[in-house]
Design brief:
mainly alpha; two-stranded parallel sheet; 2 strands; 70% helix; 3% strand; globular
Length: 139
């Protein structure tokens, strides 16, 4: 499989479109407890790498996603504080949703199934100690 950036304009456009779609899902994942944010940011980075070096560099320089991507690229993991914060937020939001909403019993199980997938993704990512040296800026 060729993992170098593409030079074809149509495939480059499709890779960039996939990167933006992944970022939309990442932003939704930052708000909604059903979607994990980090895997979509990593996918966006890969898509931008294939489609546009400029967009890839922009994403890695961003204040929100840059440190997370640098940690992933250098250490293949997520910092402990970020992982615990994500687990806490997902648990609190889902608990409040299930307690205070009027969802039918089967819809509650659908929500729990989706959240379980998100929690599995979060829990299976490698955990980095918070005192791990910051990865050098990649772009």
């Amino acid at each position: 499989m060729d993992l170098r950036p593409t030079t074809h304009p149509v495939s480059g456009f499709l890779w960039v479109a996939g990167g933006w779609a992944s970022l939309v899902f990442a932003f939704a994942g930052a708000i909604l407890p059903v979607l994990p944010c980090t895997p979509f940011v990593i996918l966006a980075s890969f898509c931008f790498y294939r489609g546009s070096p400029r967009m890839h560099a922009w994403l890695h320089r961003s204040a929100w996603f840059g440190p997370m991507l640098d940690d992933w690229q250098q250490y293949r993991g997520v910092r402990r504080r970020m992982k615990y914060r994500a687990l806490f937020m997902v648990t609190v939001v889902v608990a409040c949703t299930l307690i205070y909403s009027n969802l039918t019993w089967w819809m509650q199980y659908v929500v729990l199934a989706g959240v379980s997938v998100g929690l599995y993704v979060i829990l299976t990512c490698r955990t980095l100690p918070d005192d791990t040296p910051r990865a050098p800026r990649s772009a």
